[in-house]
Write a sequence for this structure.
């Protein structure tokens, strides 16, 4: 993104152009770009197919808030009992057919 | 005649007519086309940018469905740091700051980074950085990079052990300057690989080589070699973000896979970054403070569009202070920050910012 104060950079770009992180499906699309080198349309199409949504719904806060809780992959608000952190990442890895490094290390330690 | 309140590249307000904005948009894209030997924006794309800059909206956004992935550099220095990092001095730890970025600012990915933010100072304290990474991974969901700058200049005197090319070159000692950079580049390469592997060991998702080639072509070569090594020996996702639009030829002769590095522009840089094995490329286009933001954004969008068309990996355009058309000032106006970001997405076809 680039250098700048928090309001000038992350807040401004997040509002104007960002996918919305764990408030929507931003982290899921990011994982497909970062792990599989997918360009944006391909990454969105892949995640949308996995979730049974259209690509535009990936940034729909209402759709994704409900679906994330249903899939138990971590939600933006603090919901007692919902998967957090590593547990959420383990479920995301399973959902997207990805090996997530921190999850794999935990699995190795549990052997 | 009606005028539009817009901004110069240094952030100060300026009143311009629609004709003046159009003239700057056309001049900006023609400058990029001339320097980079790439196509200028089409008439329709120029029209789109003129409309963007003639709008009176304070904040603009991409069309619904066109949202892109955000990656960050500098970690959360801007939250707890001081003025040099655009920091606002909030007394929070890095781990707390990253959670704020994830859960309050809704970033799509994040990174852990040291306040000094260069690989050289990280090497001796890498165990502390590994613990920060482990702790962060235990409390977050978004993909997590470790980020730092190659920063080859830190290896030259007085900060490092090698002769300083900036001292040698004015004395005409060209061969000595080249040799000093080559030696320093080897140590820079080793530090980058060492830190990256340590981060892989503790569970990081990725490594971000940020502000690459700040000291020129040898630094770019060291980074490309590090990318190759890390890609071949770990499962880390690798991002390479550049320091400037043009690779400075501080050495002038170094090449990677047969391509001379000095003088490369973003659409050429990305092909080498891909070849080395990186997953994401962050092109930079510098802001000219003496021209309008319309001129700067048009110019940046032209370079980023050419880069996106050439790339096979995701392109995350840099739109921080002084790059990507964003004004070069400490508190960049959100009117221009959002216009620059939107232009990189809608015209530049960036996969992320």
């Amino acid at each position: 993104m680039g250098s700048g104060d928090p309001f000038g950079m992350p807040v401004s770009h997040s509002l104007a152009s960002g996918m919305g992180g764990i408030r929507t499906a931003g982290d899921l699309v990011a994982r497909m770009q970062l792990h599989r080198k997918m360009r944006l349309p391909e990454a969105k199409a892949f995640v949308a197919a996995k979730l049974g949504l259209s690509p535009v719904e990936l940034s729909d806060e209402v759709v994704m808030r409900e679906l994330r809780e249903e899939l138990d992959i971590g939600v933006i608000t603090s919901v007692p009992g919902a998967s957090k952190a590593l547990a959420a990442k383990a479920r995301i890895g399973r959902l997207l057919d990805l090996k997530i490094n921190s999850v794999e290390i935990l699995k190795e330690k549990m052997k | 005649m009606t005028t539009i309140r817009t901004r110069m590249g240094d952030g100060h307000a300026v009143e311009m007519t629609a004709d003046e904005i159009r003239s700057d948009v056309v001049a900006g894209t023609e400058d990029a086309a001339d320097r980079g030997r790439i196509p200028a924006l089409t008439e329709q794309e120029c029209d789109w940018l003129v409309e963007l800059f003639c709008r009176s909206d304070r904040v603009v956004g991409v069309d619904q469905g066109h949202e892109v992935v955000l990656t960050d550099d500098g970690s959360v220095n801007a939250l707890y740091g001081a003025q040099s990092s655009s920091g606002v001095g909030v007394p929070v730890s890095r781990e707390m700051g990253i959670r704020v970025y994830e859960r309050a600012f809704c970033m799509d990915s994040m990174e852990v980074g040291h306040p000094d933010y260069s690989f050289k100072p990280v090497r001796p304290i890498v165990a502390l950085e590994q613990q920060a990474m482990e702790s962060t991974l235990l409390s977050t969901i978004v993909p997590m990079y470790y980020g730092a700058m190659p920063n080859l200049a830190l290896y030259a005197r007085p900060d490092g052990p090698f002769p300083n090319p900036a001292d040698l070159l004015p004395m005409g000692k060209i061969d000595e300057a080249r040799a000093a950079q080559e030696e320093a580049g080897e140590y820079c390469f080793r530090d980058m690989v060492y830190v990256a592997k340590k981060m892989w060991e503790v569970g990081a998702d990725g490594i971000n080589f940020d502000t690459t080639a700040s000291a020129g072509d040898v630094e770019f070569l060291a980074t490309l070699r590090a990318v190759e090594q890390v890609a071949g020996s770990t499962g880390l996702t690798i991002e390479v973000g550049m320091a400037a639009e043009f690779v400075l030829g501080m050495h002038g002769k170094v090449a990677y896979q047969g391509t001379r590095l000095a003088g490369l522009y973003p659409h050429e840089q990305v092909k080498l970054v891909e070849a080395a094995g990186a997953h994401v490329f962050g092109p930079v286009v510098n802001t000219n403070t003496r021209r309008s933001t319309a001129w700067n954004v048009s110019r940046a969008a032209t370079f980023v569009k050419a880069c996106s068309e050439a790339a096979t990996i995701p392109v995350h355009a840099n739109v921080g202070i002084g790059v990507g058309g964003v004004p070069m000032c400490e508190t960049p106006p959100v009117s221009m920050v959002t216009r620059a970001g939107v232009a990189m997405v809608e015209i530049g076809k960036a996969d992320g910012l």
Notes: The first strand of chain B starts at residue 4 and ends at 7. Residues 109 and 143 of chain B are 5 Å apart (CA to CA). The radius of gyration of chain B is 20 Å. Chain B touches chain A through 74 residues (CB under 8 Å).
